[in-house]
């Protein structure tokens, strides 16, 4: 079944994406498969993954070091947007997909491929994110998804791979499906498919159990410039180092665990566990700094924008006209969002205990109840009369 001559395949080194290589060639008549593994700070050793792709039949095996790009171009804009899907999930996994799609398209252009491929199944969100993002970036590229069509069980997939020299997993496969990058981990499947089952401690890697966290609080001052995190405790850090250090601090205090039932793009509900210590902390700190530096009408209007923005990311619409338009609005709001937010980490909580900014709209002389008070109390009476006039007219007509 000839669908393409040359294909760039998103490659993780797992069973499914490894089997995709011979499957594309044998079943779909692809002449050449080039694999692309993206280093997004997941901590895996990618050299063995590169070798495995070649052993599995890839003509070329690429590794893209994209961690800094991931944080700067994808995570940071989401932080400026306070993007929390369903007001809880900071999109750590979803944010990686438009970047991987972009890397695939760039590789396809460089190597003259007429298609790209991924190993997603037909039930998840990632297939939507990859397919839509790739199409948005290059509508002429074919998008192949073998695992969505081959109808193979796990056992069948392993057996198929063994026919082409792909070794079966040596150890017993984990019952969990785990995705990791610098921003966090997502864990699903196994016992977690029962919404009433408490997640076992063994699934966590980035965050400590509350019982194992320090007995003393730790304070961190997070510096922001135009809505972007730039320092911890006064020390300027590059984006990757900042996320890395904050992951360690927050995770050490048990901060960043999320257990939620979320609504997938394909219409089903799924139980998801996330570990997102730094990302969650940064969004909460950033939102707090906005409360100090943005006017009330901008803050209130932006909340609706943030909800839409998070849905666009979750639904695979990073490269869309609406997302571009919202980016312009968000960037405009960030001009004054500079300053510092003090966070207290203690026993699973990241509590904001202070904030400061040279652009602060908080005016002590107006807010104070001391003798320094400069607010004109007499002006309130006239304001209330005008403000309440429509209500009084309505009341007179309906209750008089």
TrEMBL record:
<dbReference type="InterPro" id="IPR001518">
    <property type="entry name" value="Arginosuc_synth"/>
</dbReference>
<feature type="binding site">
    <location>
        <position position="125"/>
    </location>
    <ligand>
        <name>L-aspartate</name>
    </ligand>
</feature>
<dbReference type="GO" id="GO:0005737">
    <property type="term" value="C:cytoplasm"/>
</dbReference>
<dbReference type="GO" id="GO:0006526">
    <property type="term" value="P:L-arginine biosynthetic process"/>
</dbReference>
<dbReference type="Pfam" id="PF20979">
    <property type="entry name" value="Arginosuc_syn_C"/>
</dbReference>
<dbReference type="InterPro" id="IPR023434">
    <property type="entry name" value="Arginosuc_synth_type_1_subfam"/>
</dbReference>
<feature type="binding site">
    <location>
        <position position="121"/>
    </location>
    <ligand>
        <name>L-aspartate</name>
    </ligand>
</feature>
<keyword id="KW-0436">Ligase</keyword>
<keyword id="KW-0067">ATP-binding</keyword>
<feature type="binding site">
    <location>
        <position position="125"/>
    </location>
    <ligand>
        <name>L-citrulline</name>
    </ligand>
</feature>
<keyword id="KW-0055">Arginine biosynthesis</keyword>
<dbReference type="InterPro" id="IPR018223">
    <property type="entry name" value="Arginosuc_synth_CS"/>
</dbReference>
<comment type="pathway">
    <text>Amino-acid biosynthesis; L-arginine biosynthesis; L-arginine from L-ornithine and carbamoyl phosphate: step 2/3.</text>
</comment>
<dbReference type="GO" id="GO:0004055">
    <property type="term" value="F:argininosuccinate synthase activity"/>
</dbReference>
<keyword id="KW-0547">Nucleotide-binding</keyword>
<feature type="binding site">
    <location>
        <begin position="10"/>
        <end position="18"/>
    </location>
    <ligand>
        <name>ATP</name>
    </ligand>
</feature>
<dbReference type="Pfam" id="PF00764">
    <property type="entry name" value="Arginosuc_synth"/>
</dbReference>
<dbReference type="InterPro" id="IPR024074">
    <property type="entry name" value="AS_cat/multimer_dom_body"/>
</dbReference>
<dbReference type="InterPro" id="IPR048268">
    <property type="entry name" value="Arginosuc_syn_C"/>
</dbReference>
<keyword id="KW-0963">Cytoplasm</keyword>
<feature type="binding site">
    <location>
        <position position="89"/>
    </location>
    <ligand>
        <name>L-citrulline</name>
    </ligand>
</feature>
<dbReference type="InterPro" id="IPR048267">
    <property type="entry name" value="Arginosuc_syn_N"/>
</dbReference>
<feature type="domain" description="Arginosuccinate synthase-like N-terminal">
    <location>
        <begin position="6"/>
        <end position="167"/>
    </location>
</feature>
<comment type="subunit">
    <text>Homotetramer.</text>
</comment>
<feature type="binding site">
    <location>
        <position position="126"/>
    </location>
    <ligand>
        <name>L-aspartate</name>
    </ligand>
</feature>
<comment type="similarity">
    <text>Belongs to the argininosuccinate synthase family. Type 1 subfamily.</text>
</comment>
<feature type="binding site">
    <location>
        <position position="262"/>
    </location>
    <ligand>
        <name>L-citrulline</name>
    </ligand>
</feature>
<feature type="binding site">
    <location>
        <position position="129"/>
    </location>
    <ligand>
        <name>L-citrulline</name>
    </ligand>
</feature>
<protein>
    <recommendedName>
        <fullName>Argininosuccinate synthase</fullName>
        <ecNumber>6.3.4.5</ecNumber>
    </recommendedName>
</protein>
<feature type="binding site">
    <location>
        <position position="274"/>
    </location>
    <ligand>
        <name>L-citrulline</name>
    </ligand>
</feature>
<dbReference type="InterPro" id="IPR014729">
    <property type="entry name" value="Rossmann-like_a/b/a_fold"/>
</dbReference>
<keyword id="KW-0028">Amino-acid biosynthesis</keyword>
<dbReference type="GO" id="GO:0000050">
    <property type="term" value="P:urea cycle"/>
</dbReference>
<feature type="binding site">
    <location>
        <position position="38"/>
    </location>
    <ligand>
        <name>ATP</name>
    </ligand>
</feature>
<feature type="domain" description="Arginosuccinate synthase C-terminal">
    <location>
        <begin position="176"/>
        <end position="394"/>
    </location>
</feature>
<feature type="binding site">
    <location>
        <position position="119"/>
    </location>
    <ligand>
        <name>ATP</name>
    </ligand>
</feature>
<dbReference type="GO" id="GO:0000053">
    <property type="term" value="P:argininosuccinate metabolic process"/>
</dbReference>
<feature type="binding site">
    <location>
        <position position="186"/>
    </location>
    <ligand>
        <name>L-citrulline</name>
    </ligand>
</feature>
<dbReference type="GO" id="GO:0005524">
    <property type="term" value="F:ATP binding"/>
</dbReference>
<feature type="binding site">
    <location>
        <position position="177"/>
    </location>
    <ligand>
        <name>L-citrulline</name>
    </ligand>
</feature>
């Amino acid at each position: 079944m000839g669908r393409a001559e040359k294909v760039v395949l998103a490659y993780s080194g797992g069973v499914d994406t490894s089997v995709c290589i011979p499957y594309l060639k044998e079943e779909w008549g692809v002449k050449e498969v080039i694999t692309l593994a993206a280093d997004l700070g997941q901590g895996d050793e990618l050299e063995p993954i590169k070798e495995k792709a070649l052993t599995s039949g890839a003509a070329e095996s690429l590794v893209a070091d994209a961690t800094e790009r991931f944080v700067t171009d994808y995570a940071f804009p989401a932080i400026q947007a306070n993007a929390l899907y369903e007001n809880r999930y900071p999109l750590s996994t979803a944010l990686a997909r438009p970047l991987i799609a972009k890397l695939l398209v760039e590789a396809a252009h460089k190597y003259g491929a007429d298609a790209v491929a991924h190993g997603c199944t037909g039930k998840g969100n990632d297939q939507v994110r990859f397919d839509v993002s790739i199409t948005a970036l290059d509508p002429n590229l074919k998008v192949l998804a073998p695992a969505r069509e081959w109808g193979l069980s796990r056992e069948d997939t392993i057996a198929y791979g063994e026919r082409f020299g792909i070794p079966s997993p040596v150890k017993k496969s984990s019952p969990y499906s785990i995705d990791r990058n610098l921003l966090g981990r997502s864990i699903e499947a196994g016992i977690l498919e029962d919404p009433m089952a408490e997640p076992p401690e063994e699934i966590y890697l980035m965050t400590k159990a509350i019982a194992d966290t320090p007995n003393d609080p730790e304070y961190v001052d997070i510096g922001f410039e135009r809505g972007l995190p730039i320092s911890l405790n006064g020390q300027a850090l590059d984006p990757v180092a900042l996320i890395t250090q904050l992951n360690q601090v927050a995770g050490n205090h048990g901060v960043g665990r999320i257990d939620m039932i979320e609504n997938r793009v394909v219409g089903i509900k799924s139980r998801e566990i996330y570990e997102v210590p730094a990302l969650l902390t940064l969004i909460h700190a950033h939102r707090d700094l906005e409360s100090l530096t943005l006017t009330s009408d901008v803050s209130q209007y932006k909340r609706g924008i943030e909800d839409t923005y998070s849905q666009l990311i979750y639904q695979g619409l990073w490269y869309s006209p609406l997302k571009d338009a919202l980016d312009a609005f968000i960037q405009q709001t960030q001009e004054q969002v500079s300053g510092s937010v003090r966070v207290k980490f203690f026993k699973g909580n990241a509590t904001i205990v202070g904030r400061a900014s040279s652009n602060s709209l908080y005016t002590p002389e107006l807010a104070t109840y001391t003798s320094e008070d400069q607010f004109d109390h007499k002006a309130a009476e006239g304001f209330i009369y005008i403000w309440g006039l429509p209500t009084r007219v309505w009341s007179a007509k309906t209750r008089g």
